[in-house]
Design brief:
Two copies of one chain form a homodimer. With about 230 residues, the first copy, chain A, is α+β, with helices and mostly antiparallel strands. In chain A, the strands form two sheets. In chain A, strands 1, 2, 3, 4, 5, 6 and 7 form a seven-stranded antiparallel sheet that branches. In chain A, strand 9 and strand 10 form a beta hairpin. In chain A, helix 7 crosses helix 8. The interface between A and B is large, with 44 and 45 residues. Chain B binds a DNA duplex (30 and 30 nucleotides) through helix 8.
Amino acid sequence: MQAKEKKNCIYESLAGRNLSKDEICELKGNCSVVDFQPGEIIIKENTLAKTVAYIKNGLVKVHALVHGKEKTLRIIKGNQYVCLPSNFFDNFNHFSATAVEKSEVCFLDLTVFKKFIKENGAFAYDIIHDLSKSQVTNLHNQVENNNKKTIGRIAHLLLFFARDIYDSLEYCLPISRQEIGDLVSATRESVSRTLADFQNDNIIEIDRKKVIIKNEKFLEEISVKG
Amino acid sequence: MQAKEKKNCIYESLAGRNLSKDEICELKGNCSVVDFQPGEIIIKENTLAKTVAYIKNGLVKVHALVHGKEKTLRIIKGNQYVCLPSNFFDNFNHFSATAVEKSEVCFLDLTVFKKFIKENGAFAYDIIHDLSKSQVTNLHNQVENNNKKTIGRIAHLLLFFARDIYDSLEYCLPISRQEIGDLVSATRESVSRTLADFQNDNIIEIDRKKVIIKNEKFLEEISVKG
DNA sequence: CGACTGCTTGATGTTGCTCAACGTGCGTGG
DNA sequence: CCACGCACGTTGAGCAACATCAAGCAGTCG
């Protein structure tokens, strides 16, 4: 909601994405790079999706309001597009994206983006690959999580932060208990209880948002068995 | 498992998909159209995904075996690709596809398909649109169903068959109670009980697989409220 | 200080799974 | 042809997992 800084580093953002120098130059005039603070909304659901958003770095949650309840779909980190399918399906943002940590985001003009897809087959293939990967990952998550109880989903999430996001067994949770609940389909009370149980069983140490995983193997076991 | 009839109607299958006459001719030599009976496997998970599968008509379920349990992801009808992301992500089938009704499926050579994407921007954009639509639909389903209890998910499924598949309030369920359970994450007992409850409350009439929806509004309400 | 937000903990009710029993239809092999 | 196994379907009882409701505590901000 505060002033956001505009930058010009689109080149480094999309290097290695099969764009020619000319194409990148063309993009430069049709893009902006913006800083977001935690809690700031990057994409708002139910708005028109006229720009493509590419997360350069930081941490972002994708979420939506469903029948009055907030539901978080996933947490994603840098170097990927966010909510890209909304751009191509019907130019309408079906989901929101909000920074959970300080994040840099490139906004690219959708018209230019579409033009590149039609003119540059390698670029188009790159997008197709990204969309496919995201879809497969998502479906895997879905089948995995559906078969799990709350305890398994929370264990999975703790490991996700440790492995995929912070690359360390010690980290600060970037989200509240309520948001964890939105993410794993549980209430904030259940999240609280489960984390307390993990602490009592000496699997993790947790103080407010500071987490230390003390028994990774066991947490993994819980995560897999559900 | 029986003999499958090979056909040559690739042209009508992919007409209107932005392919030139030459390209379609090229495809003709690299494709086959096959009939599947209910229960026959179209795509088997954990195999290499060297061909693209396009459902011409019929009804197909996408499913996977997760930790020993069968989980159905979705039911799809004709005129769309099935499991396309597996082809582009890593050439590896992450999910299975099985006919639940008599279905006609085109198999297309992946190499030729990829070539078209790189050479024909309109075709590539068409694929991107399809993938995006499928992704958005899938995410919507996910957020919808996660917030629902079994009763709401089953109500939703009954309406899905009525509206999206059979376009009628009377139809025959194409799948067993067990498969409904696999689809809505419930046991066959819970499915059975819920359907019996619906019948007792005069919302539906059900005899074996024959379903008549008698109170669509109420079913809709249950579906939405969860 | 008081209001507020985020978190925790306990008591209680509901949901839905598991287990068990039983009926039905179908295909297979003696 | 009948006997048997087997998948499917239904129903009941008991139990575990969670949500809900309620109360209270710690930190923060005006």
